[in-house]
Design goal:
The chain has 158 residues and is an alpha+beta fold. It is built from four helices and seven strands; from the N terminus they run βααββββββαα.
Length: 158
């Protein structure tokens, strides 16, 4: 069944602030990317915040670039960015949203990552939709990488 949204989740034994700091640092996206396509942040984005725009060098067979804008932001709880092709290409390529939601819970933080293509350009949505299964697998790998990087952070008892 075709879908315009995929969500994966994982309980990570770390405080939301540690996880959020990692996810909200575009320079660290290569470290957490489960797909292996992210190469490096372009420019000097610093910690992301509401309205931040950042570029990313990517490679999936061939090198390409994407530009993202933070469209949702609640410190240590939610961050989401919408990704498009650079320049005029962005009108025709992209529009997908990547969202991380962090919920403190017993034993750490429940991390939900969502891939939402409901705003993807109609010209590319059907092709992108076919990537849902692979995207789910890669998102699971991303959450595992986040766990490896911050999962050893102590979580105080609740």
């Amino acid at each position: 069944m075709a879908t315009d949204s995929v969500t994966v989740e994982r309980l990570i034994a770390a405080e939301p602030s540690a996880i959020f700091a990692l996810v909200a640092d575009a320079d660290r996206h290569q470290d957490i990317d489960g797909s292996g396509t992210v190469r490096e942040a372009k420019g000097t984005p610093g910690p992301l915040k509401a309205g931040s725009t950042f570029g990313m060098s990517m490679k999936w067979g061939v090198p390409y670039s994407m530009v993202s804008k933070v469209i949702e932001f609640e410190q240590d709880r939610v961050i989401a960015w919408q990704t498009r092709g650079p320049g005029p290409l962005g009108k025709f390529v992209g529009g997908r949203i990547w969202r991380y939601e962090l919920e403190p819970t017993e034993g750490g933080t429940l991390v939900k990552e969502t891939w939402d293509i409901s705003q993807e350009n109609p010209a590319s949505r059907a092709m992108t939709r076919r990537m849902a299964g692979l995207t789910r697998t890669n998102m699971e790998k991303t959450l595992a990488r986040i766990d490896e990087l911050v999962g050893s952070c102590p979580t105080p008892p609740r």
